[in-house]
Amino acid sequence: MTATKAPTEPPAQRPVRRPGDRLFAGAARGSGIFILLVLAGVAAFLISEAIPALTAAPSEIPDGNGLGPYIGPLVLGTLLGAVIALLVATPLAVGIALFVTYYAPRRIAATMGYVIDLLAAIPSVVYGFWGLAVLAPKLVPFHAWAADHLGFLPFFAGPASASGRTMLTVGIVLGVMILPIISAISREVFSQAPALHREAALALGATRWEMIKMAVLPYGKSGVIAGSMLGLGRALGETMAVAIILSGGAGATVNLISNSNPSTIASNIALRFPEATGIGVNTLIASGLALFLITLAVNMLARWIVNRRADFSGAN
Amino acid sequence: MKLSTTTRAAAVSSALAATLALAACGASNEEPSGSAGAAASGGSASSAAPELSGALVGAGASSQQSAMEAWQAGFEGENPDVQFSYDPSGSGNGRKAFLSGAADFAGSDAALKDEELTQAADRCATADVFELPNYISPIAIAFNLEGVDTLNLKPATVADIFSGKVTTWNDPAIAADNAGVTLPATPIVPVHRGDDSGTTENFTAYLHEAAPDAWTAEPDGVWPLEGGENANGTSGVIDVVTSTAGAITYADASRASDLGVVSVAVGSEFVAPSAEAAAAVVENSPVVEGRGDYDFAIELNRATEGSGEYPVVLISYHVGCVQYDDAAKAAAVKGFMQYVISEDGQAASSENAGSAQISETLRTQAQTAVDAITAAG
């Protein structure tokens, strides 16, 4: 904060306005308006470019079945991957956050916090290669086991993929990718649980776990949810890792372990765009618009949950 | 979170160590790149061409990229004043860029469509376009089966494998053509390209023409069947097949050297992919009639029964105008095409990209087009 110098003279009746003040206020206001303009510009671009696809005859859309059948499986694939990621990441992230804030010795906690934040710094293409070369082959036996023993569930209907490049693997990789986001926010919120509440719980004879259950978790709940929603937003839009790992492109199915998976919106755009022409480009942009609306809804939901308990949460 | 300087430093250094460890993991996962940029032999220009200069812009098929790097190196070696660039943005984009005038020539895995030919007439004023099949590359059908290096397959069997009708490697249809080979009961995992690709288009065209009863889907750059294992790019499918027992795919032959390779039935014999066999089928295929004097779009005879011809090939064209408004531009295009079809140029692309060298017949044919390139005026 060196942009403005604090005035040294006693406060006058009306606040002193130096050129620096006006400059800073203008720059800040400008930045705020600019980000809104960018968002509006992106939305306008998506809508205007998507309109030809929205109005086109079904036979003109790639695959020839219309826009709904084209985007539907992609939306399903996007949601499936993101939900698996959330199921994997949220319990882990909450565990990590609790360990770092309340169980680990101070020194280890600090180091661990950094290391986990570092997960967010790994480029997604590296996660993609890791998922393809390491995780997918390792999960092949589990795929076969799940097809044999859990085959009664539609998620594990099989036949099991021989390469492991499935929606299940993608979901797990996405889970690792969004772990740092959820754990960082959870950690912040947990560490702000009022010391009075915690100490009171302990003084009443609560064990450490009971103290966390009574004083920390209720307080941090909205923060965890908000963090999860931010993570979900990233998982929905993840492109490169999914494009590398997933054997996608099939129709709508909730079968997580076969080699025919629905692709995700973002990875489908990345893979199809280079060779797309004419109405195909508009179709891809229309699918991008769908993704934009989904992420917008997720983020607004997160905001709403956080704001509902704004006075408690440390996440805003 | 408040930290003292020492703990922060410790944390940062441990974080750094973790990064390095992770980076090492990432590096070890990468495939060794198939064809390192082998320098093209700086050949002697056959004709004492005048000094070329100015910008020469190409765009199009990514299949030609490795070959184009070799051609660029060789061409710039001879003509250091030309600023050459090639944008491997895809065949469709390349043709579009050429027709709009944004590119001087296009690389394309398919010849111009009829409506594009009409547009090309505008692009090139009144003159003709040339289309030269300068990049010919065999597509190998490659598989990963322990202890088996080569298999003989009929086109119909290949079609049945990729459409999922033949599901295990010891299927009678496979065994019938491979007496003496011990075939395991491993399930077959057909792997196709997930992205839109000229390789897929040529491979499905081959299946469609050579096995019309077994393969009814129309040729397409996007894999025409629903579902199935797929991966992106040549390296993607090769990676998956290499790491998956029983997998089979189709890919540029130069990239399939570590895998088992199918010899396909042509007439009564089985032919393995090779540069010579690929060049042979192109040479013996007719040029499409009625497209102009210098338009050598080829009607590839994929159902050939000719001896020693390997019909699963990818042809990539160079598309340009016979006449350019700008004299320097015309000279540059002419010089570049001259180099590409020269023995030096073809040797360079063959070394760098594993493509087949064009035959003498094709070279003579292309030479007529190159000789015709002039400036308007």
Number of helices of chain A: 10
Number of strands of chain B: 13
Give the helices and strands of chain B as they follow along the chain: HEHEHEHEEHHEHEHEEEHEEHHHE
Helix content of chain A: over 70%
Instruction: Look at the helices and sheets of chain A and give the structural class.
Output: mainly alpha
Number of E-state strands of chain A:
0
Strand residue content of chain A:
under 5%
Biggest sheet descriptor of chain B: 11 strands, mixed
Average pLDDT for all residues of chain B = 82
Q: Give the overall pLDDT of chain A as a whole number.
A: 88
Total domain modules of chain A: 1
Q: What's the multimeric state?
A: heterodimer
Which stretches of chain A are low in confidence, meaning pLDDT under 50 for 5 or more residues running? 312-316
What does the largest sheet of chain A look like? none
In percent terms, what proportion of residues of chain B is strand? Answer: 15-25%
Distance between the termini of chain A: 21 Å
Summarize the structure.
With 316 residues, chain A is mostly helical.
Walk me through the structure.
The complex is a heterodimer of chains A (316) and B (377). By secondary structure, chain A is mostly helical. Chain A has one domain: MetI-like (MetI-like fold, Orthogonal Bundle), CATH 1.10.3720. Chain A is 70% helix and 0% strand. Chain B is an alpha/beta fold and 377 residues long. Helices cover 38% and strands 19% of the residues of chain B. Chain B has helices spanning 5-29, 65-78, 91-100, 114-123, 155-163, 172-176, 198-210, 233-243, 275-283, 327-341, 343-353, 360-372; strands at residues 54-60, 82-87, 105-108, 129-143, 150-153, 189-193, 229-231, 247-252, 260-266, 269-271, 313-321, 323-324, 374-375. In chain B, strands 1, 2, 3, 4, 5, 6, 7, 8, 9, 10 and 11 form an eleven-stranded mixed β-sheet that branches. In chain B, helix 3 packs parallel to helix 4. Residues 1-49 of chain B have low confidence and may be disordered. Chain A binds chain B through residues 62, 106-107, 110-111, 113-115, 118, 121-122, 126, 129-130, 132-134, 137, 161-163, 165, 191, 243-244, 247-251, 259-260, 271-272, 274-277, and chain B through 1, 3, 7-8, 10-12, 14-15, 18-19, 22, 25-26, 29-30, 62, 89-93, 96, 187, 189, 191, 194-197, 221-223, 226-232, 236, 239-240, 243-247.
